[in-house]
Fold:
Amino acid sequence: MDSLDLDQVMDEIIPRGDNRPPAPNFPVRQRPRATDDATAALDLVSQAAAAIKELEKQSAQAVARAHSAANAVREKLERAEDRGDRAEAALRKSESEAAELSAALIQTRKDLEGVQSQLAARQAELAAMEQRAVAAEKRASEADASVQRIVDAIRTQLPVKVAEQAKPAA
Structure:
């Protein structure tokens, strides 16, 4: 970031050192005659007027430089304020997005817990169904075995009874 050196700005506004206007060159006082006094007085007034004009010119230049420096400082300040405003807006936006993400995360966690609960319930149901299926398969297997024993018993008993019925009674 640009920074202003106030000493440099002040040196531009109020010149120091060799930039000062030359001091009026007043002649050493002598006892001139009356016309020479008037001429000398007019010369002194003329030199004073020239010095005043030079001071006014330098003063106007210093004022112009001061205005220019003030405008530059004002523009830099406005740019800094704009950057600050943009940074604050970005911060507010980031905070808002973080809050939204946090709320979404909380909701997602709740949803996940609900899904996990449903999954656990489904797993318990599945385990119970598997146990019932195993028990049903066992009962079916036992029933098949019983039916097979009955069928076998019928087969072994039936031919004897059929043969006995087929023989004439004597």
Q: What stands out?
A: The longest helix spans residues 34-166. The chain is about 85% helix and 0% strand.
